[in-house]
Amino acid sequence: MDSVWFAIALIGFAYFIGDGLKHFKKGKPKSGNYSELLDDELWGTPKLVKESKIHDYTGLSKEDAKTLVKDYPSVPHLKVNGQIYFPLKKLKAWIDNLPNA
């Protein structure tokens, strides 16, 4: 009787592994309706970066990243529900155009 349960478990395991492998290289999840932003964050470089994570993309210290908008009001940013987001491409272009100090 134990071998029957083992065989059933093995068949179930093979089914789920096979179903997962069918969708392995498609680049998008099988189900779920993710926004474009979330999708970019899952599969590559995000378009918007939270203020708390901007130091990872700019090389700034965490303390400097927190005061970036206050110190440089012209920096490209969005404020949504009290949270500041930076459009990464525009931010990189803004940094490239800064005069050397």
Task: Please give a handful of descriptors for the protein shown.
single chain, 101 residues, mainly alpha, three-stranded antiparallel β-sheet, 50% helix, rod-shaped
Textual characterization of the structure:
- The protein has 101 residues and is mostly helical.
- It has six helices and three strands; from the N terminus they run ααβαααββα.
- A three-stranded antiparallel beta sheet has the order 1-3-2.
- The termini are far apart.
- Mean pLDDT is 78; it is low at 33-37.
Our count of helices gives 6
Distance between the termini: 78 Å
> Which whole number gives the mean pLDDT?
78
Shape: rod-shaped
Query: Order of helices and strands, N to C?
Result: HHEHHHEEH
User: Rg to the nearest angstrom?
Assistant: 23 Å
Spans of at least 5 consecutive residues whose pLDDT stays below 50 are 33-37
- How many β-strands, per DSSP? 3
Helix content: 40-55%
Main sheet overview? 3 strands, antiparallel
**How do the strands of the widest beta sheet line up side by side?**
1-3-2
